[in-house]
Design goal:
With about 260 residues, the chain is an alpha/beta fold. The chain has helices at about 10-20, 45-50, 65-70, 90-105, 115-120, 135-140, 155-185, 190-200, 205-235, 240-255; strands at about 5-10, 25-30, 40-45, 55-60, 80-85, 105-115, 125-130, 145-150. It folds into 2 domains: about 5-155, Rossmann fold (3-Layer(aba) Sandwich), CATH 3.40.50; about 160-255, N-(1-d-carboxylethyl)-l-norvaline Dehydrogenase, domain 2, CATH 1.10.1040. Helix content is about 50%, strand content about 15%. GO terms for molecular function: NADP binding.
């Protein structure tokens, strides 16, 4: 018998995963703002109707909507159902959701999507943690999804996603800022090509050299970033990321840089 998976949230990610998963499970879904046509799954008229009898309920909403999504199904889920929240949210919010679910006798797990869903669909890697992680992971893995269970501590998956976001989104913001300044300097093409070359070379050795060099030369690098900020301002751009970089580098002599295996 195929498992029943219910989705709360049918945005791009929810729609893509629900559509793919419908080949392996009975899939229902609800989204108050959704007006599209279901592909393989059944769109229901309300949250209670969507989750009725479901083995697994997946909340795939914006973080701000996650508490309301959970609240909308409390008292309507099957006794042995697991609620899996996949919102990109803080560990603190995930723990609040877990406490709410526990207070109503609902098993809870939290997870995060670790790659673009529109490219991979239901094959998108998912990190998952929380008291309901074993059952949720077993169900989704049996359907062919790429799930890595991390254990029973709520917030661990969320923390890993947001640590990745600091790097990926921060790097993106730095690239945007550098390309704007480069365009103003008439060096847009060179800057783009140099970014591609630099990022292509990144590996463990390069990262270690960057960190080691920062420890030894942080004072000089602060001055370098202040000069870069002045250039940006003279080009008519606001060097928000450049100034922030200088402040982080300025903190290195006093705080150092954590290394793998040294954190508490």
């Amino acid at each position: 018998m195929r498992p029943h998976v219910a989705f709360l949230g049918l945005g791009e990610a929810g729609y893509a995963i629900a559509s793919d998963l419908s080949a392996y499970a009975h899939v229902t879904g609800f989204d108050p703002a959704w007006t599209g046509r279901p592909a393989g799954f059944t769109a229901m008229g309300g949250p209670a109707e969507a989750v009725a009898g479901a083995d697994l309920v997946i909340g795939l909403t914006a973080a701000a909507d996650a508490p309301a999504a959970l609240a909308s199904v409390l008292g309507h889920t099957a006794p042995d159902a697991v609620y899996l929240d996949l919102a990109t949210a803080s560990p603190e919010l995930k723990r609040e959701l877990a406490a709410t679910a526990a207070a109503h006798g609902l098993s809870f797990a939290e997870g995060v999507l670790m790659a673009p869903v529109l490219r991979l669909g239901m094959r998108t890697p998912i990190l998952m943690s929380g008291p309901g992680v074993v059952r949720a992971a077993r169900l989704l893995t049996a359907c062919g999804m790429d799930v890595t269970p991390l254990g029973g501590r709520v917030g661990e998956a969320a923390a890993r996603k947001l640590l990745r976001s600091i790097v990926v989104k921060g790097l993106t913001a730095l690239m945007v800022e550098s390309l704007r300044v480069a365009e103003a300097q008439g060096l847009g093409r060179w800057c783009h090509d140099h970014l591609v070359e630099t990022l292509t070379e990144l590996d463990g050795d390069v990262i270690r050299r960057l960190l080691d060099g920062t420890v030894r030369h942080s004072v000089r690098r602060v001055a370098e970033m202040e000069a870069a900020a002045e250039m940006a301002e003279s080009s008519g751009e606001m060097p928000l990321m450049t100034r922030a970089t200088a402040e982080v580098l300025r903190s290195v002599p006093g705080r150092g840089i954590p290394r793998p295996g040294t954190a508490p």
